[in-house]
Design brief:
Layout: H1 3-13, H2 16-28, H3 33-53, H4 59-80, E1 90-95, H5 103-114, E2 118-121, H6 128-137, E3 142-146, H7 154-165, E4 173-177, H8 183-188, E5 193-194, H9 198-209
Parallel strand pairs: 1-2, 1-3, 3-4, 4-5
Helix pairs in contact: 1-2, 1-3, 1-4, 2-4, 3-4, 4-5, 5-9, 6-7
The structure holds CO-5-methoxybenzimidazolylcobamide (B1M).
């Protein structure tokens, strides 16, 4: 079994120590950080999600897999984010109120930083007020919202509505993403763009500031 396959399987089993060891091994073998991330870690998490949905595994397993995923991401982060490059704009990110899923949001942050943006990460369970307060005080150009639950997606609409209420909607762009999201939903709630993944989030933000 090759290293990436072993890595994916250990991530799915929630073996954080093995995930750290195998991520380092894959790096040492010369594997591209983006390939390690997509093929082993994100791919492994898709299997976890599928098994959870089919009731083949339960929440504690998912939690362990998430912790193991972070152990791998921690090692990849410095390789995906180049230090010392000048920032080309500020983006406020967060997972919306009521939602604790942050792996995808964290990936978006890593990729944005890697592309030269400054990222103000508000974490998980972020209220509409907190998104707007931070974006205005930080003079951000974009608010990036993540939601993984169908029940928390509507919070995104509230954030955009609050931006209208506070008369700051024209100063900000809103990007949205997360597994249950779609282009249609993003349009319906008045977001500027739906981003399927972290790479498309970077492309969107670059487009907004005209920095292709
Ligand atoms: Co939960 N969970 N979970 N979970 N969990 C899902 C989302 C679910 C689909 C699983 C399932 O049933 N198959 C399901 C949601 C069903 C629904 O609403 N339709 C679900 C559920 C039900 C729940 C609980 C309610 C379970 C319970 O308690 N009974 C509970 C809710 C807690 C809460 O939030 N209030 C819960 C809890 C958890 C854990 C805490 C155990 C853990 C999260 C740990 C953490 O994040 N720190 C967890 C996990 C890990 C998952 C799955 C298995 C994996 C999510 C993930 O990290 N994927 C997930 C199943 C799935 O999604 N298939 C599931 C990897 C990540 C890289 O992908 O986040 O999609 P993703 O991000 C992608 C894109 O979506 C995009 O870019 C990333 C890739 O590049 N993207 C953006 C994401 N955000 C973006 C923002 C952008 C742009 C792109 O711009 C700003």
């Amino acid at each position: 079994m090759d290293t990436l396959q072993q890595l994916s399987e250990n991530m799915q089993k929630g073996n954080a120590d093995q995930v750290a060891r195998l991520t380092q091994q894959a790096i040492d073998e010369g594997c591209e950080p983006k390939t390690i991330l997509d093929d082993a870690l994100v791919g492994g998490m898709a299997v976890v999600g599928y098994k959870f949905k089919k009731h083949e595994i339960f929440l504690p397993h998912v939690l362990l897999a998430a912790k193991a995923m972070h152990a791998g991401m921690d090692l990849l982060k410095p390789l995906l984010v180049k230090d010392g490059i000048p920032t080309i704009g500020k983006v406020v990110t967060g997972t919306v109120q009521g939602d604790q899923h942050d792996i995808g949001k964290n990936l978006v942050g890593i990729m944005l930083k890697g592309a030269g943006f400054e990222v103000v990460d508000l974490g998980r369970d972020v209220s509409p007020e907190k998104f707007l307060d931070a974006a205005v005080s930080e003079k951000a150009i974009v608010i990036g919202m993540s939601a993984l639950l169908t029940t928390t997606m509507p919070v995104m609409r509230k954030v955009i509505a609050l931006a209208h209420e506070r008369n700051v909607r024209d100063q900000l762009k809103f990007i949205v993403g997360g597994a249950p999201m779609s282009k249609e939903y993003a349009q319906k709630i008045g977001a500027d763009a739906y981003c399927y993944d972290a790479v498309s989030a970077v492309e969107c933000v670059k487009r907004f500031i005209g920095a292709h």
